[in-house]
Amino acid sequence: MTHHSQHNTQPTSNSHERGSLHVVPASVLLAVFAALLVLTFLSWAATWVDLGVWNLWLAMGIATVKAGLVALYFMHLRYDPSFYALVLAVALLFVLLFVCLTLLDAVEYYPDIHAMTQG
Q: What is the pLDDT of residues 71-99, one digit of tens each?
């Protein structure tokens, strides 16, 4: 008596349930890599121009775009369910909140620290 196990060979609607991964074409990955190189050059070239306090904002903007490209393409968030993007966005908002609270504290005590180092 032979026993044949029955396996469900029907594809499911969610690729994560099947255990398969989304394969990004090499051309897309190379284009994103080229964009990251260009953005890295732009952030380096931005140091040649004195924009005052806007240098920091420009560098942070370029870094944000680069982080977005890495998250979307190299971490495959573009092809995953939107819930994962929501989780990432909420986590980044909390990081931003903690950094802002730290900066507020640093700005509050800067005059005392500056006076202590000068005198």
A: 999 988 888 898 998 998 999 999 989 98
Largest CA distance in the chain: 94
Are 103 and 65 in a shared domain?
no
Which of 87, 85, 73, 84 has the alpha carbon at shortest distance from 22? 73
As for how many domains the chain has, the answer is 2
Which carries the bigger pLDDT value, residue 84 or residue 21? 84
Question: In Å, how far are 35, 36, 47, 116 from 69, measured between CA atoms?
Answer: 9, 8, 22, 43
Nearest-angstrom CA–CA distance, 85 and 92:
10
Length of the chain: 119
Structural domain that includes position 106: 81-119
Domain assignment of residue 46, yes or no: yes
Residues 76, 86 share a domain? no
